[in-house]
Amino acid sequence: MVEWLESVLAGAVQMGTVYLLASLGEIYAERSGILNLGLEGIMIMGAALSFLFTIAYGHLTALILVVIVGMLLSLILAVMAVSLRLNQVVVGLALTLFGIGMSGFLTHPTIRGSVLLHLNPDLPETALIIQEAPKLPEIPIPGLADIPLIGPVLFKHNILVYLALILSFAMWFILFKTRIGLSLRSVGENPAMADALGVNVALVRYLATLVGGALGALAGAYLFIGFQPFWVEGMTAGRGFIALALVILATWNPLRAILGSLLFGGVEVIQFRLQLIGLGAQAPQFVLMLPYIVTIVALSLLSFESVKKRIGVPAALGIPYSREEV
Amino acid sequence: MALLPIRFERRLTYTRTAAILTTILAILLAFGAVAILFIILGLDVAAAFQTILNVFITPRLFFQAVVRGVPITLAALGLAIAFRMNFWNIGAEGQIYMGAFASTGIVLAHIYYGFLPEVLVLPTMFLTAFLAGGAWCLLPAVLKAKLNVNEILTTLMMNFIAILWVAYLIYGPWRDPEGFGFPLSIPFPDYAKFLFIAGNQAYTGFTITLIVAALIYLLFRYGKLGFELTVIGQSLDAARYAGINIAKAIVLGAFLSGGLAGIGGLSILSGIIGRLRPDLSPGYGYTAIIVSFLAALNPWLIVPAGIFFGGLFTAGEALQATLKIPGAAVEMFQSIIFIFIIFGEFLKRYRIVVGGGGSGG
If residue B257 lies in a helix (H) or strand (E), which one and from where to where? Predict the structure, then answer.
């Protein structure tokens, strides 16, 4: 029983890290007033590029490059939504479609070899055709990892799992306890007021969007090299959109995002388990529907609450800001 | 704004010529971007573009482009309704699958139980495909209207559920018992196909899109609902002051929107592939979003825009077969066109002024 609980909880933490990383970045973007519907596209690009870059350069360089690409992709959103004041929903969707198409194109067996040789001409022939990459190593925390139950659940993971947890606390602290966080929140609540008080609205929105892009790409990279290092086209399967829902469930709060990501991570682990014990062997599709159904139900339940209290929604979310056109 | 020494002035008006020119420019820029990528990867750009061009100048291939354009156009016409009222229906893909599911249900019921005269099969399929697609958009619409639940996320989630539902049927109860285990339904008989105009799927499909485009045009030109949806899209406050029943209008508009995508699903089965398959749509529902924007939500422009994108899918298949360029290249190309179209939207609305001045600071 303990072993079963241990593996389910540890699985929820590992799966949940995908959601946690993505939603943490998105919380910052949305707190500044930018809705990044391109998250799914940025994540799938992160996953695809972590595959190609890891084969070409190894883990560390791959992670750095993936984060840079994530920032570049979100820069497109920032330029178009912040500077050019275009509709964020439309720009975000375009970015998602771009990410899905581009990741499928670059990793396709007929193209991948040539992409990899461009990245690293010294790669052996065999590296050009493999579908998988080495997984990020597990780093058990000495001492803590041996505690029964808590050890395997919290202290026996790869570096990105720890990073996501540490980031949750750090980003919560910055958002609610520092001047930077105050500027960020004010820009998302009332950009005209923030502007009048001397906050550079455009700069804050650019930076917050870049943070979102960086973490979104990292979430995708984690999904591949940190969780399931076998490339499947479109492997994010809508998780970027679930992360967007999670941001709402977490009421734009990085610490609550931990709980939300455990919920969705848990749902996916239960989904695997149900398949393992043969339930849904006849019709696995119904089990696979679970995360999407849970998302709709959770959003609806939360809306009962938020209609009453209007919790936490950044007031200027999705609205472009310009001094001349307030 | 403050990051760069340039300023944007809103244009008060723009001409139709300017709009057309920016759209053409957007498509050309997208071709340019793809050309650069192909050159870097050592792919044969000239041959690739020749293949795309061939689709639009070879009659046989152009017919295929029209046929593939039908579901895209129908879904995009539906989306135009939703987008006019700022209801972000991203669920056309799922609504397409539900329309396909419902129309297959009618065909199977007719074949196994024979409860309808043959002439009524296709009309019944139209009706059920419309209802199923509409119903699939209804839940997000009701949640939006009653609880203000974000419809972007719910319509998207519904896509995944619909695709899995069709997969369940086709790997399970609806699999053709004589299909050697392939995930396919039994093939549709001719009376369930789009052959009623000139015995040709392209003519039939194209006629249907023209009729639907005319209906949407009339809806927005003369219909009360069309007017209400436009007001809701422009300002919720104005709609409230005008005494419009907003919840009712949103639910109705969303139902129509999903219903048309549902007919799009029917048009894939009856007009292109002739049976139910789990991969019946290569993302037509997402392409429809791009098409409706390319056409600036104008129903008459959606028809040629839909055919253009249908042509890109046709070209994609040719590229795969002859040049070994993966099908994802089409998706990538489409999304790049989309990005440039959105950028063109900016050029249409603003004039760029270099060198600050005024209040830009």
Answer: helix B246-268
- For B:172-211, CB contacts with A below 8 A are 172
High-pLDDT (> 70) share of chain B, %: 96
A chain contacts of residue B328, beta-carbon cutoff 8 Å = 101-105, 108, 233
CB distance A141 to A155 below 8 Å: yes
pLDDT higher than threshold 70 for residue B355: no
- Residue ranges of E strands in A181-316: none
- Count of the separate structural domains present in chain A: 1
pLDDT at B358: 44
- Percent of chain B topping pLDDT 90: 70
User: Which pairing describes strands B6-10 and B350-354: parallel, antiparallel, or unpaired?
Assistant: antiparallel
Dist CA A122 CA B234 (whole Å): 58
At residue A140, the 3 state secondary structure works out as strand
Give yes or no for A300 touching B (CB within 8 A). yes
Q: Do A90 and B342 touch (CB under 8 A)?
A: yes
ipTM for the whole predicted complex goes beyond 0.85:
yes
CA A41-A47-A53 angle, 5° bins: 125
pLDDT in tens, B65-99: 999 999 999 999 999 999 999 999 999 999 999 99
> Three-state DSSP class for A155?
coil
Q: How confident is the model at residue B12 (pLDDT cuts 50, 70, 90)?
A: low
In what helix (H) or strand (E) does residue B350 lie, and over which residues does it extend? strand B350-354
Report CB contact under 8 Å: A295, B329.
no
Which chain B residues are within 8 Å of A101, Cβ to Cβ? 328-335
CATH number at residue A170: 1.10.3470
Q: Which residues contact A6 (CB under 8 A, 6 or more apart)?
A: A148, A149, A152, A153
- Say if residue A39's pLDDT is above 90: yes
Amino acid (1-letter code) at residue B63:
F
Angle B92-113/B151-171 helices, nearest 10 degrees? 30
Q: Which of B152, B158, B338 sits opposite A97 (nearest CB)?
A: B338
Domain containing A282: what range?
Answer: 2-325
Q: What is the pLDDT of residues A15-32, one digit of tens each?
A: 999 999 999 999 999 999
Do A104 and B326 lie within an 8 Å CB cutoff?
Answer: yes
Token readout for A124 is: 């052996």
* CB proximity list for A215: less than 8 A, separation 6 or greater: A21, A22, A24, A25, A26, A70, A167
